[in-house]
Amino acid sequence: MSGLFDNDLSNDASIESYLEAVETENLEPQLEPQIEEEEETAVNWDAAKSVLREIAETVLLTVVIFLLIQTVVRNFRVVGTSMEPNLHDGQYLIVDKISYRLGKIQRGDVIVFEPPNRPGEDYVKRVIALPGELVEVRNGQVFVNGQPLDEPYVARPGGYSMKPRRVGPDELFVLGDNRNSSSDSHNWGMLPRDKVVGKAWISYWPPSQWGVIPRDAPAASATVGHLLESFIP
User: DSSP characters for 185-202?
Assistant: First the structure.
């Protein structure tokens, strides 16, 4: 009896082991695809997070660079003919916004500013008289501190006169190069220094006008095309 009983127990254990093995075999094929799916999902999510992080970093860097550039320079589109023959309607300029924080405005500089009589707009004119100077116009000829001003950038003198005016300590006297078609200091008075946006530095469009904007010469003499012509016989 004892041997028979032991044999039954042994058979029961074998059957139980066999059933467990079968159950494990049945579960393994189901678990493996599930584990692979979870691993693949995790990999895909990590890749997506990496792409999103790169996009966010690129956008942030672009914004930072844009803001930095805007604090140093800006572009400006010339409207009208007040600066002919040097600047033309539709011409695009780069305006230097930083140099006047480090240095002084000079006579002859072409500047972009917000006129006191037209807030919210931007004008481009030439600096004629500086703080403390006495400026006068006699039959189109400009005088500064009683001396006639040499203006090689003006094609035709203005057809007007203006009594002597003293430029204030924080002011500038500006005129357009096309004297008879310009709204400037001879119309509306002195320009407050804090209205200056920056110095018109480079012309970049159209290509025929590429070049720096000179202070004491016609703009055509400083274009890339003119400079190349002077080197090519």
Answer: HHHH-PEEGGGEEEEEEE
Question: Tens digits of per-residue pLDDT, 115-126?
Answer: 999 999 999 999
> pTM (2 decimals)?
0.73
pLDDT digits (tens, 9 = 90+) for 176-223: 999 999 999 999 999 999 999 999 999 999 999 999 999 999 999 989
Beta bridge partners of 199: 96, 111
Strands 171-175 and 162-166: unpaired
Q: Which residues are catalytic?
A: 82, 125
The residue among 75, 97, 114 that closes a domain is 75
Residue 171 is part of which domain span? 78-231
